[in-house]
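Ticket #4471: structure output looks truncated?

Reporter: J.K.
Steps to reproduce: submitted the chain below (87 residues) through the standard prediction queue, then opened the result file.
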Amino acid sequence: MKTMGLFEAKTKFSEICAHVADAGEPVVVTRRGKPLVRIEPVKDSAMTIRERRAAYMARYGRQEKKDKDDFLPPSRSKEMPRGIELE
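Returned output as attached by the reporter:
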C-alpha cells in the first residue's frame, strides 16, 4: 500500500485518483507521519459492504418483523377514567 504526505497528496490529487482507479491499489495519506485517510477504489468499498451484509445475514439471519399492531398505542376503553365527562 502506497503512502504519502498530505501536502503531496493535495498537489497530486488527480494523479493519485487515476492511480487508485487503474491499479486498484489504495493510497494512505498521512499528516505528520500518522495515517489520516485511505483513498481506495469504489468497487472495493461496495464489495466490502456486500460482504459485511452477507456476514451479518449469515450470523443473525432474517429477523421476523413484528405485527404492525405491536407498534400502535393501546386502544382506550370507555370504562377507563378520564379527566372530563362525556355526555
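Triage note (M.O.): checked the attachment and the full C-alpha cell line is present. The beta strands are 2-5, 27-31, 34-39.
Status: closed, working as intended.
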